[in-house]
Amino acid sequence: MYKLLLSWRYLRTRFIALASIISVTLGVATLIVVNSVMSGFVFEMKSRLHGILSDVEVAAPLLGQIHNPEYHTDVIRKVLGNDIESMTCVVRNPALLTFEVNGRQWTQQVMLLGIDDESFGKVTDFHPYLQNTHKREQFSFNLEEHGYPQWVANGCKDWIGESAWDYRRRKFQKIRQAETRRLEQERLYDLAAAEYLEQQAAKSRAWDANQADDSSATASTAHYDSVDSSEQPIAASPATFIGPQAPDRSSAKKSMSESGFQYVPLPEKAPDFAALHAQRAETASETKPSGLTLAPTHFSQAGGKLRELRKFSPVDAHARFRDEPNVEEFFNPEEDQYTGIILGLAIAKRKTIIDGELTDFYMVRPGDDVQIMFPTVGGTAKPISENCTLVDFYSSNMHEYDSSFAFVPLKELQKIRGMVDPLTGDASVSTIQIKLKEGANLDEARDKLIAQFPPESYPYDIHTWQDTQRPLLSAVNMELTILNLLLFMIIAVAGFGILATFFMIVVEKTKDIGVLKALGAPSSGVMSIFLGYGMALGLVGTGAGVILGLLFVRYINQIAAVVQMITGQEVFDPAIYYFSEIPTIVSPLMVVLVGLGAILIAVLASVLPALRAARLHPVEALRYE
Amino acid sequence: MSRSTAAQPAKLPSSPRKSGTTPLKLATQTLMSATSIHKSYRKGTLEVPVLKGVDLEIAEGSFTAIVGQSGSGKSTLLHLLATLDAPDQGAVYFQDRQIDNLPSRQREAIRNQEFGLIFQFYHLLPELTTLENVLVPKMVQDGFFSYLRNKRAYKKRAADLLEMVGLGHRMTHRPSELSGGEMQRTAIARALISEPSIILADEPTGNLDEQNGDEVLETLNSLRNQENLTVVMVTHDANLAQTADKTIRLVNGKVV
C-alpha cells in the first residue's frame, strides 16, 4: 500500500517528475504522429503507385506482341487458379502525341495503352481517376455531353463550355464560320477582279473598235485625248498601260464566259475595297445561312488526311476486316468524334498567369482533336498516325503516370497497329495484366508464371507492380524503418532522463528509504516504490502522449494551416506530394506498441535507481542529516 | 510476519494492558537481552571498533536509558538492538529468541510489529500527512487488500494515538507545517501504531528545545504508563537518565 501511496505522492509532488513525463509525452506523441503520417503517406503513395499498374503483368517486349492471348489467359488461369480476381489484355506502346496550341504544334512522348473498356477497370484502379463523373460509372470512349468537372472551365477564361460537346460544337462552328468568311472574301475578290478585267476588256474592245473605225493612222495623242475625254478617270491610272495586251486577256475572258462562267452584275465603278470589307463583315455577322455559307463537308480535310494516311498504313491491306467499310464516310466534327483518347492530366495541364494569379491552363481539352503517331508492330516498324478526340483526362495525382499515359480503345489500336491476323482475324496484344485476389502473394504468383513462361522460351517480361516501382518502394520502406529507429531514440533519451531524475530522487529520498526500512519495509518493497514510480511516470507520460499524438494527427491539416499562417512557409505543398492534404493512418497496433515501449523504457530506466534504493543500508541511510 | 503470531500469542490481546495499571510489573521478565556484542566500522582499510563486548538485559515494562559521550557507541548499540544492523560478534535476544541472525524478512516483521522506533530527527515522510505518517507501519505490514479492508480500524487507531499525543487537530498537515515537538510526537504515535512490545528511542529530545523536549518526554512517559511499554532510550541528558529505571553507561564501547 505504501508503495502505491508513495509512488503517487512522489509523482504528484516532484516537479522534476513533470519534466520526465513531458519528455515521455513528447516522445510518444512524436512517434505516433510521425508513424501515422508516414503510414498514411506510404499507403496513399502505394495505392497511387499501384493505381493503373496491375498486380502482376506478363508483358511482351517493346514493339513485340503476345500472339493468341486467349491461350495465354487460359494457361495463366490454370497456373494461378483461384488467386485470380480478373485479367485484361492491353496493347502498350510508346507514341508521339501532337496537338495544336494556338496554332502551334505541341508534340510530346506518351505511353499509349490500348485498353479493353470492360475488363481494364476491373484489373486496375482506372475508373476512379477519370475526371468525368459519367465515365467513372459508365465507361466509354465517347465524348460526353456533361460531367466534366468545373476545373476545365476555371482553367481557361476564353473557354466556358460546360460540357465537352458544347465546346467542340462551338469550336468547329467558329472554324467553319471563319472558313466561310474566308471563302466569301475570296469570292468577292474574284468578283472584283473579274469585274475589273471585264472593264478592261470592254475598254480594249472599245479601243479596238475605235481603231477599226479610225483606220487612218492618226496620231496616238489624238487617241489618248479621245480616251481621256470619253472614258472615266480610271484611264489615268497606270492600269491603262496594260492596254496593248488587253486583246489577249479579253479573248481569255471570252473563253471563260463561253465556258459558262457566271458574272455577278457589274458595279458601276472600280471596286471600293473598304466598302467591300464592310459588306463582307455584314454578311458574315447577320446572315449565316446565306447561299455562300459552307457546308461542313468543305473542311473535313483533317479527317480526309487521316483517311489518306490510312491508305498507306500496313493495315490497309486488311481493310476488309475493318468495321468501317466506307472510308470516305462523311465526317462532321461538329457532330462526330474520332476515336476517343484519354490523356493523363499532366500532359495537358500547364501553369499560366491570368490576372496576376497563377492558374491552370489546359492546352487541350475534352472535345479537342489530337494526333498520335506510333510504330506498327513487327521488325520493320513503320510510323503511323491517327486522329483522336480527347474525351477525358486521367488524374491519379502520380505525376509519373499522369504525364505519360494515354488510353485508347484496345480494338482500334490493334487494328491500326496491324496486330490483327488478316487470315484468322485473331488479334494479338502486348501485355496481359492480372489482378489477384486480396491477400494473394504477388511474388509467388509471379514466380509461378515465370516457371510457366521461362525467358528461355518466351520473350516475356513478367513482373509485379512492386517490381516496377521497387526503387521507390524500398527507399520509402527504408526511410520508415530508419525514422522509427531514430524516433525510438527520442523515447530512449526520455528514458535516460528518467534514469538521471530517479537517481536524483533516490539520493534525495535516502532518509525516507532508511525510515521505511527501519519501519520494516522489505528491500523489494522499497524497490517497487521506485519501479512503480517509473511505471507511473511512463503511464502518465504515455497516456498524455497518446492523447496528444492522436489529437495532433486528427487535426494535422488545421495545425499545418496555422503553422503556415504564422510562419508564412507552406508546410505541406499538395503539388509536391500529390495529396490535397496530409494523409494519416492511425494503426491501433502501432499506438499500443509505442505506448508499451515507452512504459517499458520508463520502467527499465527506473530499475537501476530502484536497485540502488533497495540496497541502501538503513543505518547508513538514517545517518544522513 | 507469520512469525509474529507464533512468537507472542500473549501480546495480541493487548488492550488489557492499556487499562492495567501495574500488574505485570511483578513479573519483571527479561524482554530483550544482548550478550558480548562487538561491532566495528571500517573506514577505508582502518577498522574502528565501536562496541567491545556489551552485555545488557532489558526487563519488560522497564525504562532503560543508555548514556554516554558521543562516539561511545550508544546509537550503534540501539541500532543493533533494533536489528537495523548486525553485530560482528555476540547475539541479541528478544523474548528468549536470538533475532540478530534471523532472515531479513523476519527481522523486518519484528521491527514492524514488535519495535517502535523513534529517531532524533523524527524521520517523517515529507510527502505524507501526519495521519498517513502514523499509518506507514500498518501499510508496510499489510498487503494492499488487507490494508484496504482494515483501513477504517487503522485510521481510527491512528487518530486516537494522534489525539493522545495532542495532535488531533493536525492530522491532515504535512510534516513541514509542524513544529519540531509536534513532529516528534507524530513519530511517537507512529512508533505506537503497531502496538509494539518495546520502544527504542534514539535521543528523541536531542533536536528539540527544552520546552518541546519536556513535552515529548511527558507524552512518552504518560503513554508508557498507559500502555505499559518497555522503553529503551539513548540520551546524553543526565537528568533524563536519572528518571530511568535503569541506566546503562557506555564508555569506549563498553558498559561501565
Essential attributes:
heterodimer; A: 625 residues; alpha+beta; 3 domains; two-stranded antiparallel sheet; 11 strands; elongated; B: alpha/beta; six-stranded mixed sheet; three-stranded antiparallel sheet; 9 helices; disordered N terminus
In short:
The complex is a heterodimer of chains A (625) and B (256). With 625 residues, chain A is an alpha+beta fold.
* Corresponding CATH architecture of chain B: 3-Layer(aba) Sandwich
Could you say how many structural domains of chain A there are in total?
A: 3
| Beta strands of chain A, count | 11
Number of domains of chain B: 1
Structural class of chain A: alpha+beta
Shape by Cα distribution of chain A = elongated
Total strand count of chain B, please? Answer: 9
Describe the structure.
The complex is a heterodimer of chains A (625) and B (256). Chain A has a 6-stranded mixed β-barrel with strand order 2-3-9-4-8-7. A two-stranded antiparallel sheet of chain A has the order 5-6. Chain A is built from 23 helices and 11 strands. The radius of gyration of chain A is 42 Å and the shape is elongated. In chain A, helix 2 packs across helix 19, helix 3 crosses helix 15 and helix 7 packs antiparallel against helix 10. With 625 residues, chain A is of the alpha+beta class. The two termini of chain A are 27 Å apart. In chain A, strand 2 and strand 3 form a beta hairpin. Chain A has 3 domains: 193 residues, no CATH class; 221 residues, no CATH class; 117 residues. About 13% of the residues of chain A have low confidence. Chain B is an alpha/beta fold and 256 residues long. Chain B has one domain: 3-Layer(aba) Sandwich (Rossmann fold). Helices cover 38% and strands 24% of the residues of chain B. Chain B contains 9 helices and 9 strands. In chain B, helix 5 runs parallel beside helix 7, helix 6 packs across helix 7 and helix 7 runs parallel beside helix 8. Chain B is globular and about 45 Å long. The termini of chain B are far apart. The N terminus of chain B is likely disordered. The chains are: A alpha+beta (625), B alpha/beta (256). The interface between A and B is medium-sized, with 26 and 33 residues.
